[in-house]
Amino acid sequence: MTLARYSLIASAVLALAACGQQQNTEQPKQDPNAAKPAADAKPADAGGEAVVKIGHAAPLTGNIAHLGKDNENGARLAIDELNAKGVEIGGKKVKFELLSEDDQGDPKTATTVAQRFVDAKVAGVVGHLNSGTTIPAAKIYSDAGIPQISPSATNPDYTKQGFKTAFRVIANDIAQGKALGDFAVDNLKAKKIAIIDDRTAYGQGLADEFEKAAKGKGAEIVKREFTNNQATDFMAILTSIKGAKPDVVFYGGMDAQAGPMAKQMKKLGIAAKLLGGDGFQSGEFIKLAGDAAEGQFASQPGLAKDKMPGYADFNTKYKAKFNTDIQIYAPYTYDATMLMVEAMKKANSTDSKVYLPELAKIEYSGVTGPVKFDEKGDVVGGTVTVYQVKGGKWEVMASVGGAAAPAAAAPAEAKPAEAKKEEKKQ
Amino acid sequence: METFIQQIVNGLVMGSMYALIALGYTMVYGILSLINFAHGEVVMIGAMVTITCINLVSSIAPGLPGSLVFTAGLLMAIPITMVLGFSIERIAYRPLRKAPRLTPLITAIGVSITLQQVAMLIWGRSPRSFPAIFGEDAPHKLFNLDVSITNIQITIIVLAILLMAGLLIMVEKTKLGRAMRATSQNPEVAGLMGVNINTIISMTFVLGSALGAVAGALYAANYSRADAYIGFMIGLKAFTAAVLGGIGNLAGAVLGGIALGLIESVGAGYIGPLTNGFLGSHYQDIFAFAVLILVLVFRPSGLLGERVAERA
Predict the structure, then answer these.
(1) Across the interface, do A235 and B112 touch by the CB < 8 Å criterion?
(2) Which DSSP symbol is given to B70?
(3) Domain positions in chain A
(4) Do A236 and B282 touch (CB under 8 A)?
(5) Per-residue pLDDT averaged across B277-287, rounded?
(6) Using the beta-carbon criterion (under 8 Å), do B224 and A23 form an inter-chain contact?
(7) What is the DSSP letter of A373?
(8) Backbone phi and psi for residue A269, each to the nearest 5 degrees, phi listed first
(9) What ipTM score was computed for the predicted complex, to two decimals?
(10) Where is the composition biased (Basic and acidic residues) (chain A) (predicted)?
(11) Distance from the CA of A218 to the CA of which of A94, A121, A253, B47 falls in 20 to 30 A?
(12) Quick check: B132 contacting A, CB < 8 Å?
């Protein structure tokens, strides 16, 4: 009797506790944002010039906040340069204003943020960072007719939705997964491959494309394991992978997981190399993995940094302004912002409906190279570069693709021969 | 077979950390019948402070052996979390001791949010990497089998056992322990017998926080990183461990922690083959909470939870 009564109390308390903790994850992060739009709504007409708002969304809290901040810095650098130079559109001096919001890398929050941008009447959006947030937000921007350029969402589904407002300045995962799959089999001579992904739109999408490519090349997938984008302990899944004795372990996910994962692979004495996508081709990965980072591979859509036409200059400006190193995508947010404004200039209007057609047919030469969109909004000619950690630094191993790289799935078959050619050059 | 042994080793390492943290939950619950949800954040602060202190020590005295630097960092971090635990009780819980049970619970969640935000202000939003003070930390082979264990993992298990044994002995044998047990059984009567209840409650928070700091430091060393968000999940898991063992019972928390670590590790390792690929290893985290539900349904007082029945 007493026992039963006690259990009732205990479960009630627990239920309450569970609810409370749920709030815990959402509440604190929403508060600072909630205050923002009100503050942003005010300075509409500062000193006679027209104020044009550009939205930027990325996770600014959570375990990839460093990447989100990096993206924001890239966009901010572009905006500040434009304002310093002074831009005239439609015969009026225009002052750009960056509205940066935290989407927490969470699809639900991303749609809230997107709605907030629509309400704040932004002229365009640079973002989001993750594929999982970019895809649901795209619908809201499309409904409102606001152009969206993602600097870093690589999941193919983003532009497959058929929205006229959706663009990206980075090669998608079909290109990247294919390049990595070819690289694993051709260059690393992998016969048995284990795959882990973090079950996000990005990680899972990339891992699926990789699996297709590697299987197509005749490699055997000996294990397919999963984790999530909050996890730090991979010992259990790595142990079961160790039993399967793979030559290469592929991880589709971000650096916050890949770093500890490389370390734990070493702890377990797994000799296989870790291979992955742009999510962990960052300085943070090397910091988190320590000496276990040595010899691991990751790719990055786009040219190698030192081959980007405007990288050296951009790097100097970035460091001078923010006093920190570029993580991954800052050059892409910079280009995305610049080319959005370029389209406005061409259309001679900041009205999203007027400049959208100009954006769709723009040819822009940016820090990351020439940018041009295909009919879906994917960048034409996206290159993929594979890097390896050598002496605590990412070194270029191979560049795959180039001018003819497929932005869509169709011409994928044509690529291997050409990809090999490129790799041999290296 | 080797894979299985390796999973057991993984589970023991994880379980030892859960157990250390679970002790913090269970001690406070045993005395105040309060679930101190801020305990996970205390662990997080312990991890972050240790990293900062280790960086400090290595910058002042470079070239010291890793274990010494770690000990020094830990010895600096423990007092800080002790003060934190003491202040949490003093500021957030003591004024509410006579309030209905729900009030301190909500306060605990508030404290937890506050600590997380403060940590974010101090240490920033990016994960902090644990300084490479242990050098290579190459894995050892266990029993000549293909089962690996590293020095840090051995340290975790040994340190956890020592601390847990020490705590149990203290509670059973010392005067302070007797006072704690008395307070837990009946605070009013214990007070009449000359036990200073406020001191005892403060001591409980201080001890629990110290154990939490050690767990946090070991966590950071093991995963070579920590950030302002780690407290939530690890706190929730440790709380589950405490409930599994019977909340309020010290030996139960230890048992619950280790059991939970093993269940998670073996579960995540074998769920794929067992369900024929229907459920994958991304369900690792559901084990903890599935266990919590099962315990609450079938044995609400936990595995070793007689004390709970006694009190009610």
Answers:
(1) no
(2) H
(3) 50-171+307-372, 174-301+383-425
(4) no
(5) 75
(6) no
(7) B
(8) 70, 30
(9) 0.81
(10) 415-426
(11) A253
(12) yes
User: Chain B partners of A2 at a C-beta cutoff of 8 Å?
Assistant: 309, 312
Minimum CA–CA partner of A5 in chain B: B312
B127 touches chain A (CB under 8 A): yes
Cα(A117)–Cα(A142) distance, integer angstroms: 12
The domain that contains B155 carries what CATH number?
1.10.3470
Which chain A positions have a beta carbon within 8 Å of B281's beta carbon?
Answer: 225-227, 236-237, 240
Q: What is the pLDDT of residues A14-37, one digit of tens each?
A: 444 444 444 444 444 444 444 444
Packing angle between helix A2-41 and helix A107-119, nearest 10 degrees?
30
To which CATH superfamily is domain A50-171+307-372 assigned?
Answer: Response regulator (3.40.50.2300)
Q: What is the chain B residue with the closest CA to A327?
A: B126
Tell if the CB–CB gap between A16 and B225 is shorter than 8 Å.
Answer: no
Highest mean pLDDT, choosing among A27-36, A263-272, A399-408, B124-133: A263-272
Tell me the count of A-B CB pairs closer than 8 A. Answer: 160
Contacts of B82 (CB under 8 A, 6+ apart): B206, B209, B210, B213
Distances (CA, A) of B310 to A404, B30, B200, B298, B306: 76, 12, 21, 18, 6
Q: A149: which strand partners? A: A126, A167
Bond before A128 cis per omega within 30 degrees: yes
Q: For B5, name the nearest residue in chain A, comparing CA atoms only.
A: A239
Domain assignment of residue B56, given as a range: 2-127+140-311
The structure's pTM equals 0.75
Q: Which residues in chain B have their CB less than 8 angstroms from residue A266's CB?
A: 139
- Structural domain A174-301+383-425, CATH architecture: 3-Layer(aba) Sandwich (3.40)
Q: Where would I find the H helices in chain B?
A: 2-32, 39-60, 66-87, 102-123, 151-173, 175-185, 187-192, 197-223, 230-245, 250-274, 284-298, 306-311
> Is A228 within 8 Å of B285 when comparing Cβ atoms?
yes
User: Cβ contact (<8 Å) for B127 and A284?
Assistant: yes
Q: Inter-chain contact B281–A5, Cβ cutoff 8 Å?
A: no
Question: Which residues share a beta bridge with A390?
Answer: A393
Count of C-beta atoms within a 10 Å radius of residue A415: 20
* B89: amino acid identity, one letter: E
User: Would you place residue A408 in the very low, low, confident or very high pLDDT band (cuts 50, 70, 90)?
Assistant: very low
Q: Is residue B167 part of a domain?
A: yes
| Residue B134 covered by a domain | no
Q: Shortest CB distance from B223 goes to which of A224, A232, A269?
A: A232
